[in-house]
Amino acid sequence: MSAQATGAFATRSKALEKIEGLSIVGGKAVGPCPKVDQFFAEDPCSGRAIGVEYHAATDADIDSAASGAWSAFASFGQSSGEERAVLLERIAQNITDLGPSLLEIAGRETGLSVTRLRAERERTTSTMLLFAHVVRQGDWVHATIDRGAPARRPAPKPDLRSMLRPLGPVAVFGASNFPLAYSTGGGDTASALAAACPVVVKGHPLHPGTGELVARAICDAVAQCSMDPGVFAYLHSGGRRERAIGARLVRHQSIRAVGFTGSVGGGMALDRMASERDDPIPVFAEMGSTNPVFICPSSMEKNAERIAERVAGSMTNAVGQMCTCPGLVFVCESDASDRFAKSLMNHLSDRMPETMLGRRVSDAFGKRLNETTRVEHVRLLGGSVPAAGSKSALRKAEGAPALFMTDLKTFIHNPTLQVETFGPSAIVVNCRGEQELRDGAAAILGSLTASIWGDEYDGRLIKNLASALEQRVGRLVFNGAPTGVEVCTSMVHGGPYPASNQPHTTAVGPRALERWRRVVCFQNAPKDLLPPELQDENPLMIRRLVDGRSTEGALDAA
Ligand code: NAP
Q1: Which of 176, 206, 321, 492 most suits a substitution to test ligand 1, by most atoms within 8 Å of the C-beta?
Q2: What is the CA angle 210-214-220, rounded to 5?
């Protein structure tokens, strides 16, 4: 039964009136098509449908978005860094100009607070501005020149010039937990546009209104910059068609790469689809992480309560719905570790259930808690595990913190304990001594982060843990909590599987642009066919490697 039929609507606001519920292709709203599924966003605080009817994209919309992106690539792929910098700055401004309406709609669709969403909007726009700076500056393309030596004997040496060139249209799938920073206008879209790749976004069904507003801001920027409207398209996705839309997009011949942020299951399903194409394409999937925390004995002895407070804060940040929330805490069993566990429990026990992003997220959280509880030798230290899901039509999406404890052997022998539980929960893994703490570091799966708490008396252990963990994670945090991802040049947001399917990349920071490019070499190319970055005169004055030496000069001066 539709939400309309049950009368289960949340109230409409002025902000909602700005939303048409239609996909945007070629710079214009498309549809509605009567034969296609309609769907509604749900207010996670009440379980009620929010009163806008969304129309899932049709096959024709998907085909036209992908083909339009391919046509636009002819010009956009050749655009200058300066032109794309202006585009990114314009998008950032347009997103900011959406003002309170964007925050209101994102808040209603996700249950996230205005304060959190304001910070996320800031992060989204600062990512756009960082990438604008990077492409304007231009060095990031790794321009490399080895001059030819036609007179060389026995064979002449060819003139060889290489640089990163754009892949083509990118399909972007965002995550539920960052409706702005990892969604329609998030890091994947920003980095792909910066890298001169048109983007087609498959909208997230948990925040379609937010997606549509941001999509319009991007399309407006494309028009303001007089670029081909195919540079960006947005496809609404929800109802019965949601899986079909993503699949058709990933299989479309015009799509040349995929950016995904979300669950391991989703990322790997898309990765399989892309690799089974007649012409397999790369998928860059940022997925699930446990973000383990390792506490060394001396530090534990002195700071058990302080560390517990920091871990509790990080674990419950945004109701545990951050990709960097810590889900595992490895400790050496002692009186101090007992104090730590007690203190952590105290911080969690006075927290009431809080609104999660949606029912599918809270249901999945409850399911994972139940799976954890069923593992032998795992003890629930605090919090509660919800009973099997109620099927009532109007149900809040909520979750309360849960803390478990187990020993290292149980952790190592039970794969279900080694993967992410998306929500406010953690497992304290008791280790018998330093060797077991090190074994724990060697046993974790790939993760975005790992944290080590230690002081000068833990010296050697810290070193051992750090060298084991470096093999497993993208970012090592010392004496701190893993949540809070700074947007800057040195940040790495990625890691070995299952944190990501491409462990050599990052989704945050300028290196994110390189995902959407591949290196192409031009041998003895006529001057007028060379991209400006590789021309003798170095018209963009970028840093290049010429005959093995780094220089910003023209070729004659090198
Ligand atoms: P999700 O359920 O995997 O959804 C992400 C997107 O992928 C949605 O558009 C979803 O649409 C689509 N999708 C999922 N499975 C699919 C399949 N089999 N075929 C086609 N499309 C599919 O993830 P989420 O709940 O939105 O996000 C939470 C997860 O993201 C958590 O695991 C969190 O840790 C992770 N995350 C990771 C990072 C990072 O940087 N590593 C950042 C943020 C979030 P439909 O399912 O509706 O079709």
Answers
A1: 176
A2: 150
